[in-house]
UniProtKB/TrEMBL annotation, chain A:
Family label: Belongs to the ABC transporter superfamily.
One Pfam family of this chain: ABC_tran
PANTHER family on file: D,D-DIPEPTIDE TRANSPORT ATP-BINDING PROTEIN DDPF-RELATED, TRANSPORT ATP-BINDING PROTEIN
GO cellular component, one term: plasma membrane
UniProt keyword annotations, A-Z: ATP-binding, Nucleotide-binding, Transport
Major site of localization recorded for this protein: membrane
Membrane topology according to the record: Peripheral membrane protein
Source organism (scientific name): Litoreibacter meonggei
Protein name: Peptide/nickel transport system ATP-binding protein
GO molecular function: ATP binding; ATP hydrolysis activity
From TrEMBL, chain B:
Name listed for the protein in its UniProt record: Peptide/nickel transport system permease protein
Native organism taxonomy: Bacteria, Pseudomonadati, Pseudomonadota, Alphaproteobacteria, Rhodobacterales
Transmembrane domains' residue ranges: 26-47, 91-114, 196-218, 224-244, 256-276
UniProt cross-references to SUPFAM superfamilies, sorted A to Z: MetI-like (SSF161098)
InterPro entries, per database record: BP-dependent_transpt_permease, MetI-like, MetI-like_sf, OppC_N
Membrane topology: Multi-pass membrane protein
Keywords: Cell membrane, Membrane, Peptide transport, Protein transport, Transmembrane, Transmembrane helix, Transport
Major site of localization recorded for this protein: membrane
UniProt source species: Litoreibacter meonggei
Cellular compartment(s): Cell membrane
Gene Ontology CC annotations of this record: plasma membrane
């Protein structure tokens, strides 16, 4: 199966190279050798704690942040090697839905203008000619057509997120990167938006890179999942398999930390202690070893490589769970 | 799409303006005053029976009378008429230079803030250099070197207040470029120029307009300074500054020749400051003294 998106060995280091600066240069490695593929029509989830590099990953895939190393192959084209003009053209095919619908829409523009702008920039379509397509996309996300003349502040969070989805859809992209797109919404609205995203996927056959910290959402929405810890993928695989039988201790503790809505099934949990280490000063060996219940001596010295197992699964651990 | 829907943003904007006027009577008064001054200068030929350049040497240095409402100057020209025409020139210079400074300064500030890095350093260090000189000295220098005429005076005032606009535009740009709608614009493949012009500029316009009204008053004052020390628009064209200067020779025997145009400067500057203060309060209640 050839992937729509093939990310290979992507790394991102933020650093300072200040000219004539008195401060010493620092560097933070936000992503470390991340590789994965997304097939057409597939939904890949990315989970992990705050600060593990999920959002950096999303922005690197769109090349909003230029990755330091590695390549992003989208439909056979290496995005990182494109000149700025061709890159801008490609942008229409990968779209992003952001976390906060209150800041992802320009408050000074009407919804109509916001939705017409991509069509004008990429296809030279004038506002009047764009109107039928704007109406169509508003219908698709379940917003009234009268929204065209309104401003973002006249809508609720869930409605705004629908508008943001409409804006991402209007250029008919092949891949949508959703960065915590439902995290800011109420649970009931979350469900509506997720159903909407799934319906659109079925109708248009597009792929999602779905970034979240909510395992419940991943379980119901994604086909495959990548678990990230401190900038690296520590485990990946099909959702059901991975969550029912996690190999990496971090995946297991993530799963166990998710609340179970049934008092009878609750068990005493081995919750993780401590915080995610600073990416500016990562621990030696396996990045997870200071918090790992299964850490052994080798974990302090050597970072485990990601090893593939049966059935599309892979994990990076010296002492995997059984 | 009903009519009510289309009108909503417009209506709320008008309503908030009215609410503002009611809440801040002083600013509303300032706005009224400024409007009247502008109208008076535009319709000067219809208001005054005299010609601003018409000399009547027999009536020189007269105090107020029915014929000459605010008296006459050294050459027997009607002061009231000359104030009206002088306002035209002063307002033209003040508003043109403020507008130019706003457009250029904001563009530079937005580019500096959006691009960051060495572009930011380069632009802002040049602005700092301009700011390091006292405003009047910069203005003086430019006019003295290039010569005193309308274009050069506008240029001089523009250059002196441009860095202030650049600074005011840069800070919110840095905040805005981290907002998700700017990232969304980049994700949609918009060009940097488009992002700066369509997505950032309108969002900082409010703050900039407030300062524009305050600095327009400042620009009119600089014009008066420059004219007063003899670097203004060439006579006989009246400007408020040159009129004050002309009257200065007779400050002891006929003080009114300087005082009335001085009072006109005061009114213009005061009205603009009142408007600016009101706008500032309306936009940022935290700034209220």
């Amino acid at each position: 199966m050839t992937g729509l998106l093939i990310v290979d060995g992507m790394g991102k280091t933020f650093g300072s190279k200040r000219f004539l600066s008195m401060k010493p240069a620092y560097s933070v490695t936000a992503l470390r050798n991340v590789s994965f593929t997304i097939a057409k029509g597939e939904t890949v989830g990315v989970v992990g704690e705050s600060g593990c590099g999920k959002s950096t990953l999303a922005r690197c895939v769109l090349d909003l942040i230029t990755p330091t190393t590695g390549s992003v192959l989208f439909d056979g084209t290496d995005l990182t090697a494109l000149d700025p003009a061709s890159k801008r053209k490609m942008r229409g095919r990968i779209q992003m839905i952001f976390q906060d619908p209150y800041s992802s829409l320009n408050g000074k523009r009407t919804i109509g203008k916001t939705l017409a702008e991509p069509l004008y920039v990429h296809q030279g379509v004038k506002f009047k000619d764009a109107l039928p397509r704007i109406h169509a996309v508003l219908d698709e996300v379940g917003m009234p057509r009268s929204a065209v003349d309104k401003y973002p502040h006249e809508f609720s969070g869930g409605q705004r997120q629908r508008i943001a989805i409409a804006r991402a859809l209007i250029l008919e992209p092949d891949l949508i990167v959703a960065d915590e797109s439902v995290s800011a919404l109420d649970v009931s609205v979350q469900a509506q938006v997720l159903l909407l995203l799934r319906r659109i996927q079925q109708e248009r056959g597009l792929s999602y890179l779905f970034i979240t910290h909510d395992l419940g959402v991943v379980r119901n929405f994604c086909d495959r999942v990548l678990v990230m810890y401190l900038g690296s993928i520590v485990e990946s695989g099909p959702v059901g398999e991975l969550l029912s039988n996690p190999k990496h201790p971090y995946t297991k503790s993530l799963r166990d930390a998710a609340p179970i809505p049934d008092v009878g099934k609750r068990q005493s949990l081995a919750l993780l202690e401590g915080e995610i280490p600073s990416p500016a000063n990562p621990p030696s060996g396996c990045a997870f070893h200071p918090r790992c219940p299964r850490a052994s001596e080798i974990c302090l010295r050597e970072a485990p490589a990601l090893q593939a197992t049966y059935d599309q699964r892979s994990f990076a651990c010296h002492n995997p769970e059984d | 799409m009903t009519l009510a829907d289309t009108n909503t943003p417009q209506r709320t904007r008008t309503a908030s303006l009215l609410r503002l006027a009611r809440k801040n009577k002083l600013s509303a008064f300032g706005l009224l005053m400024f409007t009247l001054i502008v109208l008076a200068s535009i319709f000067a030929p219809f208001i005054s029976p005299h010609d601003p350049l018409d000399q009547n040497i027999l009536d020189r240095l007269q105090d107020r009378s029915a014929e000459y409402i605010l008296g006459t100057d050294t050459f027997g020209r009607d002061t009231f008429t000359r104030i009206l025409y002088g306002l035209r020139v002063s307002l033209m210079i003040g508003l043109t230079s403020t507008f130019l400074a706003m457009v250029l300064g904001c563009s530079l500030g937005i580019i500096a803030g959006y691009r960051g890095g060495w572009v930011d350093s380069l632009i802002m260090r040049v602005m700092d250099m301009l700011l390091a000189f006292p405003t009047l000295i910069t203005g003086l220098f430019i006019v003295a070197v290039l010569g005193a005429n309308f274009v050069n005076i506008v240029l001089a005032i523009t250059v002196t207040i441009l860095p202030k606009f650049a600074r005011v535009a840069r800070a919110p740009t840095i905040a805005l470029k981290e907002r998700e709608f700017v990232e969304a614009a980049r994700a949609l493949g918009y060009s940097d120029i488009r992002i700066m012009a369509v997505h950032i500029a309108p969002n900082i316009l409010g703050e900039v307009v407030v300062l524009a009204s305050l600095w327009a008053a400042y620009a009119i004052r600089i014009e008066a300074y420059l004219s007063f020390i003899g670097l203004g628009v060439a006579p006989p064209t009246p400007t408020l500054g040159t009129m004050i200067r002309d009257g200065f020779n007779h400050i002891l025997d006929a003080p009114f020749v300087s005082i009335y145009p001085g009072f006109a400067v005061l009114l213009v500057v005061l009205s603009l400051n009142l408007v600016g203060d009101g706008l500032r309060d309306a936009i940022d209640p935290k700034l209220r003294d």
